[in-house]
Design a protein that fits this description.
Immunoglobulin-like; 6 domains; five-stranded mixed sheet; 41% strand; disordered N terminus
Length: 609
């Protein structure tokens, strides 16, 4: 009986007894569906294939616990546009092992009967796609199909050494698989979530079964096997890293970070511990490592025991900053057209430059002829005739201030005093929100009718000023701000021209096969090729492109069709030559297009390659 009827009966019973209905219990979602991610960019580590309609808790976990050891981000996104699927649930969860939830996120949605499609939106992860069926169970009377696979190292008698791993797989073409269970050595039935590792020495019997959303339960399957003792230590050591040192408010280590590695091995002994700093050579660890270089760092580490087992690589990242006690260095240069006496004709342009090797420059200021200090952001133009003095100074992030400097010069009348005029254009493909899809191209132009344009500069998102030569292409996703300025031959600098725009990702390509043949392997007629039925990259599977259900003039025409499409897939790197041979062999052995004669079949086999 499903949770909904139980809740209804409970409500009725409590009403008869005159008791209040526990609203919180009745309001609970009817089910929990779980997706997991790991280091793969082609598929989710696990995903449901069927569900009941109603309020549902969606769990998406992309963490170290689910196999993500590289810090890779994934999303779980429901398709709301492809025909043939339900579009009534808007879900887009981004998970990363290092986010505030440690990669585990939950959301509550309401599912309706039909089919849902889900995918990952991270660029390069477009093969991570799947679908599941929501059914109320009506009309489904066929139980799921469930199979078991036992794996592990075996001795000459077929016994498993140290341990055996049992993997269960279930499919249901009707309402979808709701649960898979197993029973080990007559114990209690347990929900299957991951391969079962059996390490106890002796004979074992594992029963298994599956139940679909409609409540149909498969006949029990059974696997029996024997585990024997192994020889020697096969378990790698455990190794951890800890960091120590003085830290600032941002968590950065001041001047030095000390990395301490600790390794243990319960079976034999730890033979060696190694570390790798910032991608350098692996180095034997003998004492805590002091890292003093300023900047971001990454330490990888591993350990090997006396039996030769090596641990998986661990990693730890951190940043070292230097305590800054040195003031910035600041200087000024005066440019412009000069007469024979060294006076500047029409105007003088004062450019102030500051640098700080410690915490970085926080502010630069200037003053003209003893006036008030002002923030320096662009070269200062002095146009009034007469003698002038420009003072300047700088301050770093830590608060260290430079001594004041100054430059003196004289300006005489005449010359070009008009700054250039600069303009900016942003082009590219735009969506309905006027955002640029995939990329935006920034083009700068400047004119100066007097002395002429000497240079054009630009800065992107507050970065360094860069000399402009050709249009600037920006592909990074997100909002961007570009500022530009121009300087003429006489040294006049234009006002800055600002531009703000957003670059968004291109939409995913449409699914070429909305109604797809998603059987696990490539099956041609009654022949199972044992080749995994993969998505070829456009939403179509291998079974879709082979199209065994189409009409063919003869068996020979069908075999030629299969050879042609599989050869094309080999050429594009989608299919291996070995898998192609197995598929073509299955086509030859099938009766698609009419049963071949024994001679024709033999001839096809000879021409397989």
């Amino acid at each position: 009986m499903s949770p909904r009827p139980i809740a209804v009966l409970l409500t009725a019973l409590l009403a008869v007894l005159g008791l209040a209905t526990p609203a919180a219990a009745l309001a609970a979602p009817v089910q929990t569906l779980t997706w997991t991610g790991n280091n793969s960019t082609t598929e989710y580590a696990s995903a449901p294939s069927g569900a009941l309609p109603g309020e549902t808790t969606i769990v998406f976990e992309n963490s170290e616990a689910t196999g993500n050891t590289t810090g890779m981000s994934h999303t779980l996104t429901f398709d709301t546009s492809t025909p043939g699927y339900n579009h009534d649930v808007s879900l887009n969860i981004l998970a990363n092992p290092f986010d505030p939830q440690n990669g585990r996120h939950e959301a509550v949605v309401t599912l309706t009967p039909g089919k849902y499609r889900y995918f990952c939106t991270i660029p390069g992860h477009t093969s991570m796609v799947g679908e599941f069926v929501v059914s109320d169970g009506g009309g489904d009377t066929t139980a799921p199909t469930v199979t078991a696979l036992v794996a592990g190292n075996r001795d000459s008698s077929g016994n498993y050494i140290e341990s055996a791993t049992v993997s269960l797989s279930a499919t249901d073409a009707g309402s979808g698989v709701a649960s898979v269970e197993y029973q080990l050595d007559g114990g209690s039935w347990t929900t299957y979530a991951a391969p079962v590792v059996v390490s106890a020495v002796g004979m074992h019997m594992l029963h298994y079964r599956a139940t679909d959303v409609a409540g149909n339960t498969s006949p029990e399957g059974m696997e029996h096997f024997t585990v024997v003792e192994g020889q020697g230590d096969t378990t790698p050591p455990t190794v951890t890293a800890s960091l120590s040192g003085d830290r600032d408010s941002a968590g950065n280590y001041l001047d030095v970070a000390t990395v301490t590695l600790t390794a243990t091995d319960a079976d034999s002994t730890v033979a060696s511990v190694e570390y790798q700093l910032d991608g350098g050579a692996w180095t034997a660890y003998s004492a805590p490592v002091a890292v003093t270089g300023a900047g971001a760092h990454m330490v990888h580490f591993r350990a090997t025991d006396a039996a030769g087992n090596t641990s998986p690589e661990g990693m730890s990242s951190f940043t070292v900053v230097k305590r800054d006690t040195t003031a910035p260095t600041v200087s000024a240069a005066v440019t412009g057209t000069q007469d024979a006496d060294g006076n500047y004709v029409g105007k003088a342009v004062v450019t102030v430059t500051a640098s700080d090797a410690g915490s970085g420059v926080a502010a630069v200021e200037y003053k003209v002829d003893g006036g008030a200090w002002a923030a320096y952001s662009a070269p200062v133009q002095v146009t009034s005739a007469g003698a002038h003095t420009v003072g300047y100074r700088a301050r770093d992030v830590t608060g260290n201030a430079s001594p004041e400097g100054s430059v003196a010069f004289t300006v005489v009348a005449g010359g070009d005093t008009t700054a250039p005029v600069i303009s900016m254009g942003v082009t590219g493909d735009q969506d309905g929100n006027w955002d640029f899809v995939g990329r935006a191209t920034v083009t700068l132009t400047a004119v100066d009718p007097e002395s002429g344009v000497a240079s054009i500069e630009y800065t992107v998102d507050g970065g360094a000023w860069t000399r402009y030569a050709t249009p600037v292409v920006i592909t990074a996703l997100g909002e961007h701000t570009v500022r530009a300025r121009a300087t003429d031959v006489a040294g006049n600098v234009s006002a800055e021209a600002p531009g703000t725009f957003t670059v968004v990702a291109a939409p995913p390509p449409p699914d070429a096969c909305p109604v797809s043949d998603t059987r696990e392997t490539v099956v041609i007629g009654e022949i199972d090729s044992q080749v995994v039925n993969i998505d070829i990259g456009n939403g179509c599977t291998l079974n879709d492109v082979i199209d065994a259900n189409a009409e063919y003039a003869s068996h020979d025409r069908f075999v030629k069709h299969v050879k042609a499409v599989t050869q094309e897939l080999v050429g594009s790197g989608v299919l291996s030559s070995g898998d192609r041979n197995r598929i073509v062999t299955a086509a030859i052995e099938s009766d698609i297009g009419g049963a071949p004669t024994a001679g024709a079949r033999a001839n096809d086999v000879r021409k397989l390659l």
